[in-house]
Structures are given as structure tokens and as C-alpha cells.
Specification:
single chain, 18 strands, about 25% strand, about 350 residues, 11 helices, 2 domains, alpha/beta, Quinone Oxidoreductase, Chain A, domain 1
Length: about 350
């Protein structure tokens, strides 16, 4: 097969021939039709994000593909099935606190690193080996435009965060980081789940206008000034009532003050889900006041990625049309143009901008 390989951090990806992966028991071999290219992929490949990838490695996080081979433990999957390959791989020997790796992308702790050593390569290749439990059937419509459906990489993350916070129909949600690639996904997914209104703070007025035009009166845009107290007051006022839940999806470049201003708009007995990258590359910690958390019975929860069930849920939202892919701007690149894809993604990381790699030519 042909694959794009990260030979060392700071070097362009190299497209070259590689041995076809062989799926063993508990694994599925998939022909990769489309894989999302994250807007921050260039930061990963340069080493700036300090992800624990071990070159040489085929990167790529998640894919839409067709099954080429199934193991003996698969009872419903069939060769030729159109599927989504979830990159969030969990160890099978600890049900309570399993180690996690993002296949071809990142990992957590010593156990995650061992898991990444076994499932070393990701989706920037014609073929990929995937654990059986990470493969999910897709509707036939996904086969008509797999590059568009590769946005599952983004939407499943935001859906997982909303599940973690227990978002219920009719509730008011504040999305901290709403004008970004992942935050704008959370806006769309929350409204598809039945949120009554979504407060969307941000500094980019053009993006706020775009969100308001797409989602109408249930979307409450809030221009931010950078003054923590003033911004908190503006977000609270825009909700026109209690804010039930806050989800933070700000990138590593954002200051902790922005996360704190958003989090502290939540009502008494409200929930705050932290899912972004604030502090990952240094900077101040998120300093939420102990008395405020305790006296207001606030739930603060961190969430990395999502449970397996989130894959089924978000696929259902897409299949039903409750969550729409049609308005998204998608640019596809062949495998040979992988470095162009990485550069394009970095320059087009706004709301509903998607970059996809389409490795398979079979």
C-alpha cells in the first residue's frame, strides 16, 4: 500500500510504499476512503504540540472506509461494509480505567504509549488496521461523499463533551470557543440535540454573524472584549435566563482568563465541561474559586474524547438530518498532496471548514 509517513518532527510527510497491515483476531482491515486533516496538524507534525507520536509513523486520526477483512470475532460486520473508524482506542484489560491512545495521533500515559506501539499507524494510508470495537457502520449516503462524512472526527468529539455534561433538550448552553473549528461543531451538535439556545462568545464578528445567520434566534452571539468581568456580564445577559451548562473548547493559545469568564456564567447547580487545550503549552492554570464551586454546587468535569456509544449517537444525528453536513465547506486532497492538505487545513481552520485526505485509489 501507499502511505504518508512522518519520518521526523519538523520534516514534511513522505508518501511511500509500505507493507499492507495484517489484521489479527479482534481487528478489522479497512480501505481508507477519507480521513480528516485537523487544522492544527501542522503543529503536531512540527513538534510544537509535543504529541507523543514516535516516528516513523503514519499519522491521521479517524477515517471513513470500506472493510477489506474482518476477524473471527466479528459477527455483524462484513467485507465491503462502509464504516467509520473511531480513533479512540482503549485497552481491553481494565474496564474501570482503561488506557487510551488516539490511533496515529496521541496517547495518554505509559499504558497509552504501549497501546500506541501496537496500533502505531493511523489513517493517512490506503489501508488501516483497526480494533473491531472501533468500527461503526455508516448509512449508504456516506459512500456518496466520504470526504464530507470524515467530519465525524470533529463532531464526535463535541458530541462526547455534550454527553459528558448531560445536555438536555431545551437547556441553555454556552460554548467557550464557539468561533473555532471544534467549538462551532459543538454549536451545531447542541442545537441538533435540542438545546433551547446556545450562547456563542468570540472575538471574530464575521464568524459570529455566520453562526447567527445559520442557526437563527436560538444562537446568541456575544462579541468579547478581553475584559474578564465585562465579558462574563455580556455572556450572562445574552442568555436571557440561566445558563445550564458550559463547554470549553478553547485551543492551547487561549488564556485561562477566557475559560474562567465563560465557566463562571453557569447557574447554581450548573455543569462545566473542560475539553479544550488551555494550559497545555504553558500559561496560567484555570483558577476557579473554591467558594463559588462549593456554594453554588457546580459540577466541573474534564472530558478527553468520548465514550464508544457517542459514535452511534452522532451517526444517527447525521443520518436523520438533525445534524447537517451540507453547509460545510470541504476540500479534498489526494494522498500525494498530503503536505498541501496540511498547509490548507492550517489556513482554513474556521467554523465548518473541513479538509480531507482521500488515500484510496482502488
Amino acid at each position: 500500500m501507499r502511505a504518508a509517513v512522518l519520518t521526523r518532527f519538523g520534516a514534511p510527510l513522505v508518501v511511500r510504499e509500505a507493507p499492507d497491515p495484517e489484521a489479527g483476531g479482534g481487528e478489522v482491515l479497512v480501505e481508507v476512503l477519507a480521513a480528516a486533516v485537523a487544522p492544527y496538524a501542522a503543529e503536531v507534525f512540527s513538534g510544537e504540540r509535543r504529541y507523543p507520536l514516535v516516528p516513523p509513523v503514519v499519522p491521521g486520526v479517524g477515517a471513513v472506509g470500506r472493510i477489506v477483512h474482518v476477524g473471527p470475532d466479528a459477527t455483524r460486520l462484513r467485507v465491503g461494509d462502509l464504516v467509520w473508524c473511531d480513533p479512540t482506542v482503549r485497552s481491553r484489560d481494565d474496564a474501570l480505567t482503561p488506557d487510551i491512545t488516539l490511533q496515529g495521533w496521541s496517547s495518554r500515559g505509559e499504558g497509552g504509549a504501549r497501546l500506541a506501539e501496537h496500533l502505531h499507524d493511523g489513517a493517512f494510508a490506503e489501508l488501516m488496521r483497526v480494533p473491531t470495537e472501533n468500527v461503526f457502520p455508516l448509512p449508504a449516503a456516506a459512500g456518496e461523499d466520504p470526504a464530507r462524512w470524515a467530519a465525524l472526527t470533529v463532531h464526535t468529539i463535541s458530541y462526547g463533551g455534550l454527553l459528558a455534561g448531560g445536555l438536555a433538550a431545551g437547556e441553555t448552553l454556552l460554548v467557550s470557543g464557539a468561533t473555532g473549528n471544534l467549538g462551532s461543531s459543538a454549536v451545531a451538535v447542541a442545537l441538533a440535540m435540542g438545546a433551547g439556545r446556545v450562547v456563542a462568545p468570540g472575538r471574530n464578528k464575521a464568524v459570529l454573524d455566520l453562526l447567527a445567520d445559520r442557526f437563527g434566534p436560538r444562537l446568541r452571539p456575544v462579541p468579547l472584549s478581553g475584559d474578564e468581568a465585562a465579558d462574563r456580564a455580556a455572556m450572562s445577559a445574552a442568555a436571557d435566563g440561566p445558563i445550564d451548562m458550559v463547554i470549553d473548547l478553547l485551543p492551547p493559545s487561549a488564556p485561562s482568563t477566557a475559560s474562567r469568564a465563560a465557566a463562571m456564567t453557569v447557574r447554581e447547580y450548573g455543569r462545566v465541561v473542560l475539553m479544550g487545550g488551555v494550559g497545555m503549552l504553558g500559561g496560567d492554570d484555570l483558577a476557579l474559586p473554591y467558594p463559588w464551586i462549593m456554594r453554588n454546587s457546580i459540577t466541573v468535569r474534564g472530558q478527553w474524547m468520548y465514550p464508544r456509544t457517542a459514535n452511534v449517537g452522532v451517526i444517527r444525528l447525521l443520518a436523520s438530518g438533525a445534524l447537517e453536513l451540507a453547509p460545510e465547506r470541504v476540500r479534498s486532497f489526494d494522498l500525494d498532496a498530503v503536505n498541501d492538505a496540511v498547509a490548507y487545513a492550517a489556513a482554513h481552520g474556521g467554523p465548518f471548514d473541513r479538509t480531507s485526505l482521500t488515500p484510496s485509489t482502488r
